[in-house]
Amino acid sequence: MCYFVTHIRNLPRACETCSQTGTNCATSCARWAAHGTSLVSRDVNQHGTTIVLYHAVSKDLLPPFLHSTLPNGLNIHRTEIWTGSEGSLQAVVEEAPAKVTGTMWLEPAPEGCVFGAQLTTDVQLPLFSGRVEKIIANNLDKLLEAEYQFTLGWLGNETA
Q: Domains plus CATH for the chain?
C-alpha cells in the first residue's frame, strides 16, 4: 500500500522568479536549515539543477511504536532534480525500507505561478507499512507547506 501526497499552491511571482528559491544557494540553505535539513550538494549546469539534502529526524519526533525499531531516529537523503520548471524528487530513509518519489512543477498562472508536487510514499515494513506511510505522507505535506510559506516570505522580500 502506498500513500500519495498532492500539494498545489499559488505563488505571487512569475515561474522564473519562483524557481530561483531552489537554485539560489543562500536562499535554499536558509529554507532547508529552518527545517533541520542540510545541503549536501548543489550542481547547476546546462541540463538543470540537482540538489541533494540530508535530514535527521530524532527518535523523539517519531511515534512511540517506532522507538524500538528506530532507536537512533531516521536519516533521510533527498534528491531534487530540476530542469526548467519541472523537477523530480527521490528520498530514501537509511534505517528503514522506505522511499518517497515524485514530480514537482511550476506553471504560469494569471497572478504569478502555481507550484505543484505529486509524491508517493512506499514503506516495506511488515505490520507497520500503512501506518508509517501515512505518517510520512502527513509529514511531507507539512514540510511542503513550510517550504511554501518560506518561499512566500522570500518572494515578499524581493523587489518587484
A: 2-157 (3.30.530.20)
